[in-house]
């Protein structure tokens, strides 16, 4: 084995190593983007969870005999807070959105509640939060799509498998009714 062949092999090895390092770093960046996207969803969900008890207390003052609906909202909030995986979180959020929809439907039967300034402020805050959750969910799912594309494309998939880059789940709502933010219009 001559010196020129040894040099060529070393250069080939270094080029291959730089290529693998580049793919690895690309996957790391995309994984971090997914983590950041999820944390943005988490921030907005926490904000939503903080609004729910105030909303329930406000409604309770006007519609205390609607116990079943109020209990369903509290239960849905607890399940959403305790959810672990992205799939569990999506299921819990679907249930919470449906429960909030029923809660807001109650306001139609109670004109005094509908006119309550505290209720109106909470309604506005929740609407804003729902919009932010939607945007955060979209951003997260876009990050997951880019990560999955990189993870599954050749030759990056070789690096992903060698270094155990796990797939990420999309944050998808399963319940058709929960695909929309709760209706909170009081006109």
Description:
Helix 1 runs antiparallel to helix 2 (67-82). The protein has helices at 3-62, 67-82, 86-106, 111-115, 117-152, 156-162. The protein contains six helices and no strands. The protein is rod-shaped. The protein has a single domain (27-179), classed as LemA-like domain (de novo design (two linked rop proteins), Up-down Bundle). The chain has 187 residues and is mostly helical. The mean pLDDT is 88.
Summarize the structure.
By secondary structure, the chain is mainly α. 78% of the residues lie in helices and 0% in strands.
- Fourth CATH level, the homologous superfamily: LemA-like domain
What is the H-and-E element order? HHHHHH
CATH architecture: Up-down Bundle
The CATH topology is what? de novo design (two linked rop proteins)
Strand content: under 5%
Largest sheet: none
Low-confidence stretches: none
Amount of helix: over 70%
Number of strands: 0
Average pLDDT taken over every residue: 88
How many domains make up the coordinates?
1
Q: What is the approximate shape?
A: rod-shaped
Decide which structural class fits the backbone. mainly alpha
Name the CATH class: Mainly Alpha
Measured on Cα atoms, how large is the radius of gyration? 24 Å
User: How many angstroms does the end-to-end distance come to?
Assistant: 86 Å
Treating each run of at least 4 consecutive H or I residues as one helix, how many helices? 6
């Amino acid at each position: 084995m001559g010196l020129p062949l040894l040099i060529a092999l070393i250069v080939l090895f270094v080029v291959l190593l730089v290529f693998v390092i580049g793919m690895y770093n690309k996957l790391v960046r995309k994984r971090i983007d997914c983590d950041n996207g999820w944390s943005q969803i988490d921030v907005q969900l926490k904000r939503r969870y903080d609004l729910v008890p105030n909303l329930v207390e406000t409604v309770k003052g006007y519609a205390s005999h609607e116990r079943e609906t109020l209990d369903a909202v509290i239960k849905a909030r607890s399940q959403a807070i305790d959810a672990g995986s992205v799939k569990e979180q999506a299921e819990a959020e679907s249930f919470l959105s449906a429960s909030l929809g029923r809660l807001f439907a109650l306001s139609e039967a109670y004109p005094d509640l509908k006119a309550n300034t505290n209720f109106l402020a909470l309604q506005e805050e929740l609407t804003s939060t729902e919009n932010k959750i939607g945007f955060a969910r979209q951003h997260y799912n876009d990050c997951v799509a880019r990560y999955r594309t990189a993870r599954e494309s050749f030759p990056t998939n070789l690096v992903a498998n060698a270094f155990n880059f796990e797939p990420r789940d999309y944050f998808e709502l399963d319940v058709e009714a929960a695909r929309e933010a709760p209706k909170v219009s009081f006109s």
